[in-house]
Amino acid sequence: MRIHRRTLLALALATGLTAPAMAVAQAEDIKIGVLATFEGAFTVLGEDGERGALTALDEVGGMAAGNKIVVVRGSSDASPDSAIRAARKLVEQDGVKILVGPLSGDEGIAVKDYAKTQPGVTFINGSSAAQDTTLRDPAENFFRFSTDGAQWMAGLGTYAYNEKGYKNVAVVAEDYSFPYTQVFGFMAEFCKAGGKVPSKSWVPIGNKDYSSVIAAIPDDVDAVYVALGGADAVNFLTQFQQSGGEAPLIGGSITVDQTVLTSKGRLRDVLIGTPAAGPTADTNDTPEWNAFVEAYKKQEGAFPSPSLFAHAYYIGMKAALLALEETGGKLDDDGANFRKVLSSLSFETPTGKVSLDKNRNAIADIYLTEVTEGPDGNLLNKLIKVVPQVNQTLGIDEAEFLALGAVSRENPSCP
User: Fold this and answer.
1) Residue 78 gets which letter from DSSP?
2) Hey, what domains does the chain have and what are their CATH numbers?
3) pTM for this structure?
4) How far apart are CA 235 and CA 211, in angstroms?
5) Of residues 414 and 11, which shows the higher confidence score?
6) Who is most buried in 115, 220, 280, 383, counting CB within 10 A?
7) Looking at residue 3, what DSSP letter applies?
8) 27 vs 62, 122, 209, 290, 330, CA distance in Å?
């Protein structure tokens, strides 16, 4: 039986309960929805995203401002429709007032649009990294503390051209908004440095046979930039190795993530030496990163090092918990004060300081890396360089950046 709060107050007065005892009695559970890909080709990514969110929760003993946090799980398959169905259930049936997620690019844009119909609910991004989730037509109640896919590429295009000597690069990427964003971020630097991209191959999520894609890669390119994740990345890399592919690779962030590097088989032979960039680096040796790794490893099924998905969901959940603590766990004003606190939140993370811009998108450090074999035989991303405090316009004036146009299959282009 649930006792109404007024009844509880009357009982407290009648029995002479002290104020602290009343406060404990009145504390309520706070439900936070965690929306991730627990189905489809990106299942392994979603599972690690959840580990990251739970790591943040474990740090505070599952409590915020004296309130127990209850996680309600929402499952999608990386498609916008499934993400909206899961978000609707979490919000309209389960009654969450805070939702952390989603994971994938097109999902983020769809959930951003759904957020506009639920002004009393606060949406904090998981790892969805499509540029236009926040850059164009943002939702006032949607926050991204995990940066976007173009930001994740900071430093890589210049490094590939100047240090690796790659002048002509082919692209193989999944056909949706996040890889468009990653390719945009890579090409923004690579083309400016003088590089050319004569070929782009776009493939659907869940593709199994890459023979025609591999055959279409021009023979005279210096390298292949790959932006595939999860099972898609494993399938492509395995078939590329089996076909005798000799061109070196450049990695999109999710292609060299721990969700791929821990896969078994000969694909490791084509990954070693691959330069990439993203929000994390496995060999980051700061005390903050090392502490995060150790905490993360306590989660069931953890990888040798947290994936970028674990990192992103950790950051999003941590932001929610910090804001709840500052507001005393109160959401009874439809979360208005909670969102006000989130908007001005700036805090230290395992990968440096994070703050938000006017569109509620993160400004944070980005890590240039290269895949190497660790002393235990596991593959990892070795830190090459930290690119500090990258904003969403990549340091370009906002008007000039917006004039470059929305990311797409065709934009940008430097054939």
Assistant:
1) S
2) 5-147+286-364 (3.40.50.2300), 151-282+365-402 (3.40.50.2300)
3) 0.92
4) 10
5) 414
6) 280
7) P
8) 14, 21, 54, 34, 10
